[in-house]
Design a protein that fits this description.
By secondary structure, the protein is an alpha/beta fold. The chain has two domains: 245 residues, Aldolase class I (TIM Barrel), CATH 3.20.20.70; 92 residues, Chorismate mutase (Chorismate Mutase Domain, subunit A). The chain has 14 helices and eight strands. The structure holds phosphoenolpyruvate and manganese (II) ion. Manganese (II) ion (MN) binds next to loops.
């Protein structure tokens, strides 16, 4: 991919993007933008004017008139402005007003038709476009969107990690699944990665810890929603902060360097990393040995015509191992994920043994060993 650096990212790291979730009125947008600009800590303004809401009968944005307010905000603050686009017409309107940065929202990245429509609309321009991750944890859709834009000649690209929708209880509005963003950073090291703690957290209290985590993972910037009076916001009320709170959060953030030229620190880190490598090797060796035992069990079960599954045994393993894990300071969430992975691998090994004469292998979540 041919990628070029984005101006605002050349000048500062982490870059800070802020502004309301939605532009609601000229007064609300200008007062918010002027107040956050006064902090001197914001590099790019944001506001949604076409709001893709999950359910109908919610505020769906003010539409194209909001672009004129954004232009005024740019004139008053001297800061560049950004807006979400979801179709051809949005791109057309935004480019007409020379909006500096466009972003594609999570509900649009999931749809290759919409992304292609946007990519076609952008052909021949030198627009700067940020692509949010799709709602679901599918890195190919995120990658595909970047590729579609790049094929249209868009070289100033950015990624925004806003977390992934998930069913069930979580402290987050959208699960961060940090490892997925890190994988995208690995795939596209030259494309900047911005974190959107507002949509990950869904509430003010989580903005600081999520922002700090992103910086510690070496993200290039943050997009934080702010509102002159969040209590009366027409969208995403619980996660927007006043300009003062925004400044407070930004002041508390610790920016660490990915690499420092400190000899003693590097020696210390090297030693610790060597320890980690040795332990990882030992762990793999043990897991390999465990699989051998599982295979032996498979042989015995095959001889006696016994099934692989024994649900009760699996329950016992989970209970015992999560208790033991807790004693080692390992979370229940990790223990379950770890056990499931080891368990599935054991089943696959036993299946190979049980069905070694070419029968279909079955996948199951039942118990073994
Ligand atoms: C937004 O940025 O206000 C927005 C709608 O975000 P997302 O696409 O991440 O839900
Ligand atoms: Mn929002």
């Amino acid at each position: 991919m041919k990628i070029e650096q984005i101006d605002i990212l050349k000048q500062k790291r982490p870059v800070i993007i802020s502004g309301p979730c939605s532009a609601e009125s000229e007064e609300q947008l200008l007062s918010t933008c002027e107040a956050i600009a006064k902090t001197g800590k914001v590099d790019l303004l944001r506001a949604g004017i076409w709001k893709p809401r999950t359910r109908p009968n919610n505020f769906e944005g003010v539409g194209a008139v909001g672009l004129e307010w954004l232009v005024k905000a740019r004139e008053k603050t001297g800061l560049p402005v950004s807006v979400e686009v979801a179709n051809f017409n949005h791109v057309f309107e935004a480019l007409k007003q020379q909006i500096d940065v466009l972003w594609i929202g999570a509900r649009t990245t999931v749809n290759p038709f919409s992304v292609q429509e946007i990519a076609d609309a952008l052909k021949g321009t030198n627009a700067t476009v940020f692509v949010k991750n799709p709602l679901n944890a599918d890195l190919e859709l995120w990658t595909g969107a970047l590729e579609r834009l790049n094929k249209s000649g868009i070289t100033r690209l950015g990624m925004i990690h806003r977390g992934f929708a998930q069913h069930g209880k979580s402290i987050y509005r959208n699960e961060p699944k940090w490892q997925l963003a890190v994988e995208m950073k690995r795939r596209f090291p030259e494309i900047p990665m911005i974190c959107d703690p507002s949509h990950i957290g869904g509430k003010r209290e989580l903005l600081l810890p999520v922002s700090q985590q992103a910086l510690d993972l070496d993200f290039d910037g943050l997009m934080l929603e702010s509102h002159i009076n969040p209590e009366v916001a027409l969208s995403d009320k619980a996660q927007q902060v006043t300009p003062d709170s925004l400044e407070e959060i930004l002041d508390k953030l610790v920016v660490r360097q990915p690499n420092v030229s400190d000899e003693s620190l590097n020696t210390q880190l090297d030693m610790l990393r060597q320890q980690i490598d040795i332990i990882d090797n030992d762990l793999l060796q043990l897991i390999g040995e465990r699989m051998q035992v599982a295979e032996n069990i498979g042989i015995v079960k095959k001889e006696k015509g016994v099934t692989i599954l024994q649900t009760q045994r699996w329950e016992e393993i989970i209970t015992k191992a999560t208790e033991n894990g807790a004693l080692q300071g390992l979370s229940e969430k990790f223990m379950i994920r770890y056990l499931k992975a080891v368990h599935q691998e054991s089943i696959d090994h036993q299946n190979k043994i049980m069905n070694s004469e070419g029968a279909l292998s079955t996948r199951t979540d039942g118990a073994i060993s």
